[in-house]
Description:
- By secondary structure, this protein is α/β, with parallel strands linked by helices.
- It has one domain (11-322): Alpha/Beta hydrolase fold, catalytic domain (Rossmann fold), CATH 3.40.50.1820.
- It contains nine helices and 13 strands.
- The chain has a nine-stranded mixed beta sheet, with helices on both faces. Strands 4-13 form a two-stranded antiparallel sheet. A two-stranded antiparallel ribbon has the order 9-10.
- Helix 5 (169-178) crosses helix 7 (220-235).
Amino acid sequence: MASPSIPDTYTSDPLGSDFEQRSLPQPPDYEGAVRAVLVRYRVQPATTRAVLYVHGFNDYFFQREMAEQYAAHGFRFYALDLRKYGRALLPHQRPNNVRNLSEYFEDVDAALAVMRAEGAQTQVLSGHSTGGLIVALYANARTDSGLAALVLNSPFLDLNQPPLKLLAVPWLTRLGAVWPNLPVPSGLPDTYGLSLHRAYRGQWDYDLGWKPNRVFSVNAGWLRAIRKGHQQVRRGLQIVMPVLVLHSDRTAWGRTWSDDFRRSDIVLNVAHIRELAPRLGPNVTVTPVAGGLHDLFLSVPEVRAMAYQTVFEWLEQVLPGGPAGSPAQPTTR
């Protein structure tokens, strides 16, 4: 089914005057009406290069600094709130409810189409955690997308659960085909959220209604979709464009607070990322970032600086047409 026509009007965004958003309506699904929401940073360099950022699970786009960094290095910046997340969540929908990760491909298609219409000829796709898994599967499936590069920030390539809990996963995955709405435990404590939000132990301000510390509930249909994606990665993808995979240098775990949580990944096992990232395609660069959180770009300032430096140096090497950081005069749309 063809996507509905996309309104070409941007409206104000909760992030403030430097950001604006537009709705991307999609065909209805098993819950009814569906949309994604594209966010645009209004300070745009005079360039045909652009990046689209896709958030992770229990998440949405709120990272102003990321937009500023990409613009400062010669990229137009866009971010996508996927269907049933953040700005795109509709009253009749369950947050993050999905039955196949390919459902998100239409959202990415629509966002990239808007960017092309606005002059983005060299497109970079970036994803964090579950968003990293989604965009990797997207790049593998959309071989004619014309994407120039893929940047993955701690991609969710496997489950990080204790062995006893993993024993139940195949059973729950099979149930997801028959009873997709069956509730299943996420297994994620609230410690990660506590490490991020400035109201607790972090330094960031974001909407706790869209990114709660105690994560949104999940169901067997979601688990089945995730595991099918993991199986594709484990079998091996053939992503043709260059891929950069960043991850923390260490994993920590615990349901009670530890200061170790400030400088490690407490969501995913970084050993899984190291093992599986080379299976994404023939041109994959895997780089650990010392002291990084699960979302590397929410780490302490010196770690974020190193992560951004790694991204932009790599993009300078792999993208056609000269350095990514070439001087460009910013304009405000």
